Amino acid sequence: MFHNDNGGCVIKYNFTIKNYRCFTDARPARFSISRGMTCFIGVNNSGKSALLKMFQELRNLWHVAANYDGSGGANIGAMQSYHVFDQQEIFCDRNNRNLAIEIEVVGAPEVTDTGAINVTRVVLVGSRDYVEAHNNVQWSIDYYVGKELVSQKAQFSKSGAAGKGDEFFLAGLGSYSVALLRELFGILFASFYVGPFRNAITVGSGAHFDLAVGEAFIGIWNDWQNGPNKRHNRAITTVTENIRRVMGFERLSITASTQSKTLQLNIDDRPYKLNEVGSGLAQLIVVFGNALIRSPSIIFIDEPELNLHPSLQLEFLTNLASYASYGVIFATHSIGLARSSAERIYTVSSGGVGAEVELYEKNVSPVEMLGELSFSTFRELGAEKILLVEGTTDVKVFQQFLRKAKKDNRVVVLPLGGNSLANGNVEHELSELRRVTDVVAVIVDSEREIEGGEPLEARTAFVELCRRLKFEILLTERRATENYFDDEAVKNALGSGFTALGHFERLSDSQNGWSKADNWRIAMEVDWECLRKTDVGKFIDAL
Known about the structure:
- It comes from Burkholderia seminalis.
- By secondary structure, this protein is of the alpha/beta class.
- It has 18 helices and 26 strands.
- Strands 1, 2, 4, 5, 7, 8 and 9 form a seven-stranded antiparallel beta sheet that branches.
């Protein structure tokens, strides 16, 4: 797994995209990615799908850049873009200028453990002129520290002690490291793209972008399920269990037919061919199966809500994220799905000078969010309670806790928005929930610093408000949600180098902390029998 956090500080990468398809240099696409989920939302043909495809189309570039052993200021290679016949297609057709990708590292320490200065910015430029003669894109690379261009310094050269070439020496100034950028390029190269078409049934087909489909996929499934590799055998069992859980079946088995032309399903002791079940179930099988086999760093998926009931969409996306070591980036039309799952949301819209990307910062009331999530469809399936938690990362955590308590189909989890709502000044917004449902429960972090200590003043006021509204309310005995994770769960989810927090230890203060975006991964590993003995577990048990 990739864990590019330093002492609890989360590293993020800021992208600026100029002259790629519908994004011009007059209005470049600007967005950030880091661990967790990132969402692009917009109407049809706004450009959100193009941003996802960019990462797949430029996979050759990420591979070359990750292995580039020079100091920059030079061409690194001519190459074709993935699944693009005419290489001119990737360039913006509103001007004749070069394609440029700028990436800035944010949140990293200024120097490495060896004392080298971290290179925090890279600019990759694709030459439009070269395409005319060769139908290849010639790419160049430049390294920066802040705004200072370092790759064209006269005496900037590889250090003999650098090992893999991550460090360079600049006479009079010292050593520079490009390790963080190389790691990012490696993450992008190891990504997995899922387009809006995902069908396992098509006989004779081989692949759709990164998806193995049809007989190719069925053959791989059969090899993993029935071959000699026990790790593969166990992995198929895990995928099948994930699909069973998402769909709510009691029992499920999936096997290849005798001629490997289709998949045979047994659902709750009744047999089905794959073409006899709905497209939503077929989608889960082909996407989860491919993700398992690819074992990617990032999963890019276009419209994850396709073919799925609203009550299954977040469950599908969260389970899909479990196959990605770094995160998920998705494009959607559903603002409800975006709000309930993504740590970062960007809107993409068409403008007079090309597509525009903006950070989505609109706040809505809990009732509006219930509408965006189509709460009425949840009620049709038996949902009877609303659980309010602090933020988007907590939504995915408490989904896992509710599943362990076998209450996930009866409770809909909504984010409060952290301190923006978890205070005593939001009575009108919260009281509106009574018009929707009679049963509202709330869990908020106390932020206590010691056992029995005072919670944050704003949280105390919020508790009083919830009690006036007759909400079921829990102000945690420990500092925050992540203080309830046991050590075994942390190690199982993140690796042996990580340890559980103390009951009142702040995550950002921990020497080997993790990103809050990974909290849900740990929650999946938590022992429910241990958790249910805590105040949080008892509260969930009583819902």
